[in-house]
Backbone:
């Protein structure tokens, strides 16, 4: 059976731009389209999460425009990213998807479903928030601080961006980062500097924009986060669950932005129940 570590990297022509992607899981059923975090490429997904969901559902991973193996220049707005995601789904000839948006990918998922609601069955929004949400802008300063801490401690910036600084949180960060190395062949290229700048601009723009009317999103939505998220403050998850008319909420205690990775077993169980 194909796994996260062994899935073939394919490419598709999306309006003249080469997008790279991977598929795994069963061939039948509505596929789960994964939408990634800031600078995230396919190799940055947690294998436990991907393989766990792919055990029951078709899964599609892809690199956004200008990231990893996908050509082009990275968009500087969430709406442009959503347009790309819709075009990618159409290029694959898929009639309906479930959306899984983590962090920046959660912003894109919201823009996607508001643009093309008929393409979507269900939505998972993890570690994310609504347009104009509290504390979303200014992520560049958080990233700079995390890089400074990483340099001083010999750790990875994700230790500080995704996990709490408790012993338990840092141990979870170690385990998560170790899992990201399980795919050893045909790995993605890292994000380029210009891509990082464009995506930070997109996040700042989303955080500084006016709130959108989420009451029109009638799809089932599963919102999840850690209770100590500093990248997209946890209050935004509560706000999403309140404003989306058909939402359920799961908050993991004593965890940060990467709570779904720290508690991947429980989260996958919850996600599979939701996606049935």
Residues:
């Amino acid at each position: 059976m194909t796994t996260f570590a062994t899935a073939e990297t394919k490419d598709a022509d999306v309006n003249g731009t080469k997008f790279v992607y991977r598929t795994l899981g069963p061939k039948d059923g509505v596929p789960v389209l994964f939408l990634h975090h800031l600078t995230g490429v396919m190799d940055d997904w947690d294998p436990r999460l991907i393989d766990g969901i792919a055990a029951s559902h078709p899964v599609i991973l892809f690199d956004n425009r200008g990231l990893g193996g996908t050509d082009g220049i990275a968009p500087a707005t969430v709406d442009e990213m959503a347009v790309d995601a819709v075009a990618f789904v159409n290029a694959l000839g898929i009639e309906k998807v479930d959306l899984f948006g983590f962090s920046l990918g959660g912003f894109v998922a919201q823009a996607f479903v508001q643009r093309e609601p008929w393409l979507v069955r269900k939505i998972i929004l993890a570690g994310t928030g609504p347009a104009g949400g509290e504390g979303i802008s200014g992520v560049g300063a958080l990233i700079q601080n995390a890089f400074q801490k990483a340099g001083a401690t010999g750790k990875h910036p994700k230790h500080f961006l995704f996990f709490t600084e408790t012993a338990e949180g840092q141990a979870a960060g170690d385990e998560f980062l170790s899992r990201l190395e399980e795919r050893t062949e045909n790995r993605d290229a890292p994000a380029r500097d210009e891509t990082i700048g464009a995506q930070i601009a997109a996040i700042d723009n989303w955080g500084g924009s006016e709130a959108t009317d989420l009451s029109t999103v009638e799809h089932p939505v599963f919102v999840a986060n850690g209770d100590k998220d500093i990248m997209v403050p946890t209050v935004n998850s509560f706000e999403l669950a309140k404003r989306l008319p058909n939402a359920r909420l799961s908050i993991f205690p004593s965890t940060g932005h990467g709570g779904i990775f720290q508690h991947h077993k429980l989260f996958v169980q919850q996600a599979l129940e939701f996606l049935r």
